Amino acid sequence: MTTFALVPGACLGGAAWSRVAALLRAGGHDVHALTLTGLGERAHLATPETNLDTHITDVIATLAAHDLTDVVLVGHSYAGAVVGGVADRAPERLSRVIYLDALVPQDGVSLFDAGGPEYRAAMEAAANGGRRIPFMTDEQLDAYYGRHDLTPAQRAWIRAHDAGHPIGTFEQAIAIGAPKVPRRYLNCTRCPSPAPAWDDVAELDAGHWPMFTAPEALAAALTA
Asked: pLDDT tens digits, the chain, 224 residues: what are they?
C-alpha cells in the first residue's frame, strides 16, 4: 500500500481528484485529496494575504495532522510550486514527489516572474482589480492547452466549483533549495508545454487535466 497526497492545480479543490482517488483506494492505497486555502470548499477562507506560503503550510499541516510519512506527494499544474515547497520544508514525510504536468519552482522566482510580463498582465486583467483569478475561458483553453480534451460538461463542472484562484500565490517568490526528495515529472503529451530535462520523466497520453479526461490512465501512471 502507498500513501498518496494529491494537490490540485489552480482554481480547483480536492473534489477534482474524486475519480482518481476512488481508483487508487480500490487498489488498496491510502489517499488524501487536499483542498488548499481559498479553493473548493475552503473558498471562504481566502484573504487578500493568501499566498504560496499559505498553500505550502496547508499541505504540511495536513501531513502532520494525519501523522503521514513515506508519502507520494502529487502536484498538478500550479501545485508544482506547492509540492516543491513542501518537499523542501518537510522532506522527512515524503518518499517521492510527482509533478503532474506541473510548474517547477525556482528559488527566488514568483510564478508571475516565471511566466513573463505578458502572462502577468493577462492574469491581472482576468482578476479585474480583485484578488482572485477565474478559470480560463473556452478560447483561452483552446489557445494555451492544445488537445486538453475537456468536455463541455467537465468545463461546466470546473466553473461551477471555481471561486477564483488567490492571486497572491502567483505574486510571492519562493525560497527553495536543491531537491531533497526523489522526484518524477509526469508529462501530459497532449499539452504543448515541454517537460524538464530530469532523469525521471514519464509520459501520459492525455491533456492537461487527466484527472477529468483520463482518470484510469492517470491512476495507473501514479502507481507504476
From this structure: 999 999 999 999 999 999 999 999 999 999 999 999 999 999 999 999 999 999 999 999 999 999 999 999 999 999 999 999 999 999 999 999 999 999 999 999 999 999 999 999 999 999 988 999 999 999 999 988 989 999 999 999 999 999 899 999 999 999 999 999 999 999 999 998 889 999 999 999 999 999 999 999 999 999 99
Edge-first strand listing for the sheet containing 201-204: 30-33, 3-7, 71-76, 94-100, 183-188, 201-204
Cβ–Cβ under 8 Å, residues 67 and 41: no
Residue 208: CB atoms within 10 A of its CB come to: 25
Structural domains of the chain, ranges and CATH numbers in brackets: 3-223 (3.40.50.1820)
Nearest CA to 79 out of 11, 29, 21 is that of 11
Residues 152 and 224: their CA atoms lie apart, in Å, by 30
Distance, in Å, from the CA atom of 2 to the CA atom of 204, rounded to the nearest integer, reads 20
Could you say which DSSP state residue 45 is in?
G
pTM of the model: 0.97
